[in-house]
Amino acid sequence: MNDTKVDQIADRIYRISTCVPDIAPGGFTFNQFLVDAQEPLLYHTGMRQMFPVVRAAVEQVLPVESLRWIAFAHVEADECGAVNEFLAAAPHAQVAHGAMGVMLSLNDMLDRPPRALADGDVLDLGDAGLRRTVLEVATPHVPHNWESHVFFEQVTGTLFCGDLCSQLGDGDPVTDHDLLEAAITAEETFWQTSMGPAVPAAYRRLADLNPTTLAVMHGSSYNGDCPRLLRELADIYETRFGCRTAPAQALPGHDTPIGAGR
């Protein structure tokens, strides 16, 4: 692994990045994000083997024991492998996740009970010079996993988007250069996305939030025209990758069609 780097990508929001050189051409970054607030939030923990370097990086900004919230986009080693290590290091910390993930996995996996968030719930991180409120947005199966969700920090307009908009290589911490082709290349390298009709709708819903910064888990964060990028990716998934919207169909035993009501 290359050295772990800490860079500010938005007001009091920090990207912790470790590049692993042999995963993809030019390497592949694993990023965590730290929100410095009255109730600090760590978004992604990294894999368990990365805990020492990620903890040391957090300590460059604030004491690890001051963490109040830990979150991640879905249940996967690079997203939450070190979650119990961080819970042990931060005695007042609690995992906040979508209700689906809490029900499916986290009630059993975690050493302390998590907080379950419904789609549209707001998590208040308190006021430490700049008030922070985080919106819970459910994105089931996008890019993968039933429990997938993202956080949108409403004050700075930062979207913590997990694996969405992934790129290969070890680029700048944050860029305004167009990431469209880089994101398509990463998709065509790993085929990480569940190629279903929910994908374009999820990207367009996130675009409607009008984020100003995309905090990307793999690759550079983005502070260009975020809504345009997200809508262009929705179009690509729909036309090139075949994620077209299917007619709504009712599940057996249910009156509500699949896809209806969202």
Instruction: Give the CA-CA distance, first to last residue.
Output: 42 Å
- Give the overall silhouette: globular
Q: Characterize the largest beta sheet: strand count, sense, and whether it forms a barrel.
A: 7 strands, mixed
Under the CATH scheme, which class? Alpha Beta
Instruction: Give me the strand/helix succession.
Output: EEEEHEHHEHEEEEEEHHEEH
Please name the CATH topology: Metallo-beta-lactamase, Chain A
The counted number of beta strands is: 14
Radius of gyration: 18 Å
Helix and strand content put the structural class at alpha/beta
Q: Domains counted in the coordinates: how many? A: 1
CATH superfamily: Ribonuclease Z/Hydroxyacylglutathione hydrolase-like
Beta-strand residue fraction: 15-25%
The count of helical stretches stands at 7
Mean pLDDT: 92
Please state how the strands of the largest beta sheet are arranged side by side.
Answer: 1-2-3-4-5-6-7
Uncertain stretches: 247-262
Helical proportion, percent range: 25-40%
